Amino acid sequence: MEAANPLGIEKISKLLWQFSIPAIIGMVVNALYNVVDRIYIGHAPGLGADGLAGITIGFPIMIILLSIGILFGVGGATLFSMRLGQGKTEEAELALGNAFSLLIISGVLFMILGHLFLSPVLSVFGASARVLPFAMSYMRIIFSGAVFQIVSIGLNNFLRADGQPKLAMITMFMGAGVNIILDPVFIYVFDMGMAGAALATILSQFISMVWILFYFLSKRSHHTIQLKNMPIKLHIAARITALGLPNFLLQLGNSLLNVVLNMTLLSYGGDIAVSGMGIVNSIQTILLMPITGLVQGAQPIVSFNFGAKKIQSSKRNTKIRDLDRNIDRIDWLVGYQNYAGTIGAAV
Predict the structure, then answer these.
(1) Number of domains comprising the chain
(2) Of the candidates 42, 29, 105, the residue with the CA atom closest to the CA atom of residue 292
(3) Does residue 19 lie within any of the structural domains?
(4) pLDDT tens digits for 120-143?
């Protein structure tokens, strides 16, 4: 099964192109979820600026959703790739099964907590009395589909680790495409407003999740999700969490900055300032996604070769060391740009 995975046989330079380009395209397309919602809501009668402000208030929560998918998705896929590189197929599939369970459990917990504390959380995050109903209408449905988003984000990392970067890109295209089609239908045709935009989003994420699960439960995949590997083992779960923690904390910090920014904008500029920040967030997200895609494309390559211990000698392994250092710089750059962009917008 390992021989079918190109991570162990192709040149590093070729792999970087094969994995990073689809990841970059996919992440840019994935950024269209919130952008498309904002476009349709901003032009919808009865929503406009208040609707935009409602989505912007919920944006930090969407980042937290993303960060949970990254925590267990990137962490699990990294461990998965390392074990494949070591030739430990059973342990790799155990990491896949445990990560899948962690994604489902965290998604259900996020959904329950979100529904229990929806109104106070949105108020703390900067929602005014005028904007709160719009934010609640949107986020109530987003919370209901938390499992779909977290699982699809998390398992998408495993698609790349399983040697399927193009399929990972197609999955993102599929989700974003369905969202673009359903948004105007639910918002304008069915006159569902904020709830319609949220429903289009979670349905598109549900389709993405089902598409990925169909791959990992079929014979097409090199490594399948098996029931015997799904019971959580503490040492596996701890290892997955440790590997995914840096990216998780980075996104969590970004969410916190957006919360502070929304509260500051509400105090000094009112709801219209929060709406304006929503537009800025859309542009910033699209600009940053290529960097994120590059990192995601490189991650399984580095992890697999690290597990195979192909980092000591030869030109090929020197490139891996250089790539590893560059990824550290890219991670720092993403964090810095998130911070600088948010502070700059506040100023």
Answers:
(1) 1
(2) 29
(3) yes
(4) 999 988 888 888 999 999 999 999
